[in-house]
Amino acid sequence: MAGIPSDYTIIGTVLAISVAIILISGLALYVSFRVKETLREEKGRGARAAKVGLLIGLLFLSGGVFYFFASGFNASSSNGTAQTTTQSSVSTSSTLTTSSLSSTTSTTSTSSGQSVSMTVQCPSSGGSVSAGATFTCTVTIYNLGSSTYQSATLVSSGAFTQFAFQSCSKTINGNQASCTVPSSTEIAVGDIGPGTTVLSLGVMAPSSAGQKSCSLTLASPGMAQTITQNFTIQVSNKP
Fold first, then answer.
1. Which residues 6+ apart lie within 8 Å of 150 measured at CB?
2. What is the pLDDT of residues 188-230, one digit of tens each?
3. In the chain, fewer beta carbons within 10 Å around the N or the C end?
4. How many Cβ atoms from other residues are within 10 Å of residue 137's Cβ?
5. Looking at the domain 116-236, which fold is it?
6. Is residue 221 reached through a cis peptide bond, with omega within 30 degrees of 0 on the bond before it?
7. Residue 8 has pLDDT above 90, yes or no
8. Is 199 exposed, middle or buried (0-12, 13-18, 19+ CB in 10 A)?
């Protein structure tokens, strides 16, 4: 990955800093001895102060050079770490985003590219239903686009084929419309216009009790793909 220092680069930088430290230290010692030899015979307070000041200046100079090298090396290391962290964060964010989109596509009953979705509340009152009893299911279809899908059908699958459709009523944006029941497992929905279509279905429960894993599939010749909603119904024995 570009911008991340390699092992050879780090080793070379460390060696260069080490050589620089040795050279600066040697130069500081040389100058110190030369100053000491030059001012050896000077006994006055001024000469002594000059020697002390010069030595302190050399110490500060050496310390400043060492600090400069250390700061530069630390900045280079920090940049490499930041770039690595940033690339890792971007990769993680991309992975999470892809995973989230995949989860949304697989769990919601939406027709891809058509802005059509469907929810099922069955039975409408919640809870369980008695074996052989008739109850109501509510199917809500949301068409957020501008197209009208004609000749739509709603077909039962899974354990819902054990149930039987008895009746159907339909509204589009609150206005009454028609739907029919061609068979016990199919509803002829008709047109699905822009807005909200609500189906109220009369359904008869099977004679066998237990939890039923059911599904309903919405299809239309104008849709690129079908929409399937899965749900469960608890059927209890007659009291």
1. 190, 191, 192, 220, 221, 222
2. 999 999 999 999 999 999 999 999 999 999 999 988 889 999 9
3. C
4. 22
5. Immunoglobulin-like (2.60.40)
6. no
7. no
8. buried
- Contact indicator for 139, 120 with CB cutoff of 8 Å: yes
pLDDT at residue 112 tops 90: no
Banded pLDDT at 56 (limits 50, 70, 90): confident
* Average model confidence (pLDDT) across the chain: 77
Three-state secondary structure readout of the chain? CCCCCCHHHHHHHHHHHHHHHHHHHHHHHHHHHHHHHHCCCCCCHHHHHHHHHHHHHHHHHHHHHHHHHHHHHHHHHHHHHHHHHHHHHHHHHHHHHHHHHHHHHHHCCEECCCCEEEEEECCCCCCCEECCCEEEEEEEEEECCCCCEEEEEEEEEEHHHHCEEEEEEEEECCEEECCEEEECCEEEEEEECCEEEEEEEEEECCCCCEEEEEEEEEECCCCCCCEEEEEEEEEECCC
- Residue range 172-186, pLDDT digits in tens: 999 999 999 999 999
